[in-house]
Fold:
Amino acid sequence: MADRASATLDGSLEIGRRVADLEISRAWLVDPVAGREGPGEIVVHEGRLEAVTWLDDAEGAGVEPGGVIVVPGFIDLHAHLREPGFEEAESVATGLAAAAHGGFTTVCAMPNTQPAIDEASVLGRVLAAAEQSGSPVELLVYGALTVDRRGESLAALGELSDAGAIGFSDDGAPIRSAAILRSGLLYAGMLGRPVVDHAEDPGLTDGAEANEGLVATVLGLRGWPVAAESGPVGRGLAILADVLRDEPRAQLHFTHLSTAGALDLVRRAKAAGLPVTCDVTPHHLALTDTWIAGARGWAWEDDADPWLGVAQVAGPYETSLRVNPPLRDRVDAAACLAALLDGTADAVATDHAPHARIDKAVEFGLAANGISGIETAIGVLLAAVDAGRLPLRRAIAALTSGPAALLQAGGWPGTGGLVEGQSANLVVIDRSESWLVEPEALRSRGKNSPLLGRELPGRVLLTVANGRLAFEA
Structure:
């Protein structure tokens, strides 16, 4: 068994208070920015990362990645914190508490609130809620691209940018108009901000309930074709190429891509030099549409498909599995993993979408879309690591340096690494332990997770955000 790290922490600290002194010795460090992992030691003093020391082979003998690991704080590019308007599902305060439990020290909130974050005053209201929460987790906020996210006219992008918007998106809904997308890319580019597109063709998804394929057919659910994603991605790339002739700072990010076809379009666009980025979610990497039929095997497991003779272990039509885009088949799930491995996917974003029970306790096709996933993201990725499908350093990079690089393009100062002299943003995880996903274990108000009742590898012991204690097991 790997040696456990030893840590000393000022016992007088409370959540939200500055970390006065923290020393962690003989742990496995992972720093994607330095491109390095191995035995090491961490010293935090007065909230700053004072020293990162890498141990040589003799000093680090017995320290292994299966024990205690220390990694940079995670960054979530895509979360729904629901406030204002839907506080029964989540508030900024509960969302940030859930983020800290999941190891996240920076969270980017989507603007599909009520009212939508299409005015500087609403954005300021959300930032004020974060300040009042007392959480040290940094909240970044996207502004809506269009007024009330209706897709009819651009929102006041300049005012939103001045108020602190990190980018613009109508997520929760696609950008229906090609003309609006083009104008949005131009204006956002002038402001040095990305446009984040939810790639969906509503003409193909109206009334759809699950991924078009065998599972949907057998279960009698209306199919959601993969073309509904790849078509808008192709359109967006063509518009971006056109806009770049007038505004070379234009940036386009596709969020929660889920199909092999869409990811291959992004792969080819990157090879051609277009400034396009994308993310994938933990659930599209690890789950497939067979879960809707009752399967509970990871997407990469040989026995993950109930249609291959494997007995179902859960009932069908579990509404926590209804998401947008829908869970795909094993081919698409494998494509998401391959895109993460080859760098086509720049980051893993949770698409944390908590819902009140009333919005999920209905027929499958009527349930609200979304999984409450910010607390389980690292566990899902570590399951892929344990299965030999994802290197540990790449998994951590997808949650740290990858999203940091995208935010840096808009002026965010973070690095996603273990950088001496900066405010401490780090997570301590015991890889030798697992934890049971239960409603009472989740800090989020949204308990809509298909992983309830499942053991996930890796227990977050400590999250330090911006030099302050955010979570302690």
Q: What stands out?
A: The longest strand covers residues 21-31. Residues 227-243 form the longest helix (17 residues).
